[in-house]
Amino acid sequence: MQLRIGNGYDIHRLVPGRPLILGGVRLEHPDGLGLDGHSDADVLVHALIDALLGALSLGDIGLHFPPDDPRWKGADSLKLLEQVIALVRERGWQVTNLDTVVVAERPKLKPHIAAMRSAIAIALGVEPEQVGIKATTNERLGPTGREEGIACHAVALLHKP
Ligand code: MG
């Protein structure tokens, strides 16, 4: 059996007047902030996409879904994730497991993690047990700590039977 590993990182700005969507789940920020971006700005799914693409050296999310392409304006990032997992499967690879860390001061993510794992698992056609989502604050340090944005780190392990 062959194995491949990939990692991904993304950050998006927190701004007023935008929805806050993380892991395909719509959340409420206590100050009404959301993530800015060309698509729905789902930073968690974007980091996962880069981890999956990285595992097979297929480039990055910007290569596959250019931010200046009107097709991806307001795009549901779970749909982009579905396209990426199709590329992975076409090449005979399967997801072993995924793990992520979301860096956000607020809102509290714990009550929503089960729903996010489920949404991502459905998009990928895997079990929620294969999708790790962890949340941390940045101890009020740096851009994420000042709530200028939300960041996410991800790793993906793939296997080919
Ligand atoms: Mg992004």
Description:
- The chain has helices spanning 43-55, 61-64, 77-90, 113-124, 142-145, and strands at 2-16, 20-22, 25-27, 33-35, 94-103, 131-136, 149-160.
- The chain is built from 5 helices and 7 strands.
- The protein is an alpha+beta fold.
- Helix content is 29%, strand content 32%.
- Helix 1 (43-55) packs parallel to helix 3 and helix 3 packs across helix 4.
- The strands form 2 sheets. Strands 4-1-7-5-6 form a 5-stranded mixed beta sheet.
- The longest helix is centred in the middle third of the chain and has 14 residues, at 77-90.
Low-confidence stretches: none
- Count of helical segments? 5
Largest sheet, strands/sense/barrel: 5 strands, mixed
Percent range for β-strand residues: 25-35%
- Please, what is the average pLDDT? 97
Which molecules are bound besides the chains? Answer: magnesium ion
The shape is globular
Percent helix range: 25-40%
Q: Determine the N-to-C terminus distance.
A: 5 Å
Number of strands: 7
The helix/strand order is: EEEEHHHEHEHE
Question: Using only CA atoms, what is the Rg?
Answer: 15 Å
Structural class by helix and strand composition: alpha+beta
Please list the strands of the largest sheet in the order they lie side by side: 4-1-7-5-6
